[in-house]
Design a protein that fits this description.
This protein has one helix at residues 59-62; strands at 14-16, 20-21, 24-25, 41-43, 66-67. With 68 residues, the chain is mainly β.
Length: 68
């Protein structure tokens, strides 16, 4: 998922990131990919090695985000 891919996508409240997309593994989330999005729920593959999620999200939205 590229850098700032969904930046300010105001209708985005829930995201499911699959293990594969078009047969290729999803390996990373770009810097601020979901910044300024009103996300409430995020589901990502369990085997991912996560870095600090604030890299992907804006702090004011990240504080109310729940992970599944």
């Amino acid at each position: 998922i590229g850098r700032c891919a969904f930046y300010r996508c105001n209708s985005l409240t829930s995201v499911v990131i699959p293990e594969k997309y078009n047969g290729k593994p999803v390996k990373e989330i770009g810097y601020e990919a979901f910044a300024k999005c009103p996300l409430l729920h995020l589901c990502m593959p369990l085997d991912w090695q996560y870095t600090d999620p604030s890299v992907y999200f804006t702090r004011d939205y990240y504080d109310r985000l729940t992970f599944k």
